[in-house]
């Protein structure tokens, strides 16, 4: 497959008018100028590495708690319209009985994915090992301290497909953090009221990821600096940001970018099952929520409960709010940083010869025109 007449966005440079050759699911060559070879004319649109959302719970009526392989396939097929080529399926706090059922169904889905949508890279397990003080939209009665034995059981049921675990590091002695690292699972601090000093203990063990910075965590307080301060302080800690224009004030978004830079942030949606659906009442796990536009909140207290925005919307918000942000820097926050964090950058995350052809085509207004996964066009506008 030839993709031609494209503005190709690379890590360090931009090919203003070039073409790209794909063979056997991988990028065979990257070229500048015109070509007379037959191919797909991208009409001067931008060709970027495919977006990787490491924290989404669902959308279009589907989430992890749908509990069927059919539902998981549906989500995989619909996500490319947002420019997503890879994602990590988020779960919310649920009963152990339900989690066992969901994990089994998800394992079947992962083993039988047919290259007909976005690639799922595993599960982002958010809860139940989180703090009651910062539970957000998680059911209080089901929360518990990090438990290695339960973690082992869930890992086995999932077919060892758990990729990230969000937990409160202050509720364990460091052994849970070490266990995750030993099993190639990315530990992520979130939904915790921990102090800066408490984070340092697990930072020394190896934690380098923070779940949706500012949301569901101890704040930046000048007498009790919390997890948010830790995320800003350490340059090598990657911070998720929900850039939907709702979860973070624009000034906080700019403030964070000034400190962390484009190499310290990964854009996420934290989207739940009502994304892409009409406004109304829905469920997030066992909790009732209300969707109004792109805002989703708990029915009982009005607190935010996941999100209703698409990934391409969050990309547009980031480009709008950060002055002079180039696409070369944007792709670090959508693709490169998280690919490195997940140790898959040798395979995907940037446009390089030999890597998988996971690509997103955007027009001048950042609207998704095409999405390519493993060298196959899986979405066209």
From TrEMBL:
A Pfam family assignment: Amidohydro_1
CDD domains referenced in this protein's UniProt entry, alphabetically: NagA (cd00854)
InterPro entries found in the cross-reference section: Amidohydro-rel, GlcNAc_6-P_deAcase, Metal-dep_hydrolase_composite, Metal_Hydrolase
Residues engaged in binding substrate: 137, 215-216, 223, 247, 304-306
Record keyword DNA-binding present: no
Domain annotation Amidohydrolase-related: ranges: 47-378
Organism domain of life: Bacteria
GO biological process terms on file: N-acetylglucosamine catabolic process
Cofactor, how bound (note): Binds 1 divalent metal cation per subunit.
Cofactor(s) listed in the protein's UniProt record: a divalent metal cation
PANTHER family reported for this sequence: N-ACETYLGLUCOSAMINE-6-PHOSPHATE DEACETYLASE
Similarity-based family: Belongs to the metallo-dependent hydrolases superfamily. NagA family.
Protein name, UniProt field: N-acetylglucosamine-6-phosphate deacetylase
Source lineage: Bacteria, Bacillati, Mycoplasmatota, Mollicutes, Entomoplasmatales
Gene that this polypeptide is encoded by: nagA
């Amino acid at each position: 497959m030839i993709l031609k007449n494209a503005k190709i966005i690379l890590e360090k440079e931009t090919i203003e008018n070039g073409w790209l050759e794909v063979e056997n699911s991988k990028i065979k060559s990257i070229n500048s100028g015109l070509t007379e070879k037959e191919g797909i004319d991208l009409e001067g649109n931008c060709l970027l590495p495919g977006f990787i959302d490491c924290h989404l719970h669902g959308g279009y009526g589907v989430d992890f708690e749908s509990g069927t392989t059919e539902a998981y396939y549906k989500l995989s097929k619909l996500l490319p319209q947002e420019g997503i080529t890879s994602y990590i399926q988020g779960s919310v706090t649920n009963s152990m009985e339900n989690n066992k059922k969901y994990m089994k169904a998800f394992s079947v889905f992962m083993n039988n994915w047919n290259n007909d949508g976005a690639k799922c890279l595993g599960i982002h397990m958010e809860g139940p090992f989180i703090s009651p003080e910062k539970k957000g939209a998680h059911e209080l009665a089901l929360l518990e301290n990090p438990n290695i034995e339960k973690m082992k059981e869930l890992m086995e049921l999932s077919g060892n497909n758990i990729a990230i675990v969000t937990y409160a590091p202050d509720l364990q002695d460091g052994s849970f953090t070490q266990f995750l690292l030993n099993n190639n699972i990315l530990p992520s601090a979130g939904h915790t009221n921990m102090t800066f000093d408490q984070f340092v203990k697990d930072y020394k063990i190896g934690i380098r990821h923070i779940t949706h910075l500012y949301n569901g965590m101890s704040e930046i307080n000048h007498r009790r600096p919390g997890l948010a301060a830790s995320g800003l302080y350490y340059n090598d800690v990657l911070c998720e940001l929900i850039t939907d224009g709702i979860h973070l004030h624009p000034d906080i978004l700019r403030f964070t970018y000034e400190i962390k830079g484009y190499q310290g942030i990964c854009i996420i949606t934290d989207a739940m099952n009502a994304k892409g659906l009409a406004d109304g009442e829905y469920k997030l796990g066992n909790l009732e929520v209300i969707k109004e536009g792109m805002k989703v909140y708990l029915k009982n207290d009005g607190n935010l409960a996941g999100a209703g925005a698409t990934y391409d919307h969050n990309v547009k918000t980031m480009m709008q709010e950060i002055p002079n942000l180039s696409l070369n820097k944007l792709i670090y926050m959508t693709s490169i940083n998280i690919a490195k964090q997940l140790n898959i950058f040798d395979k995907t995350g940037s446009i390089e010869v030999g890597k998988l052809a996971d690509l997103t085509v955007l027009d001048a207004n950042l609207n998704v025109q095409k999405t390519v996964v493993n060298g196959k066009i899986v979405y066209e506008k």
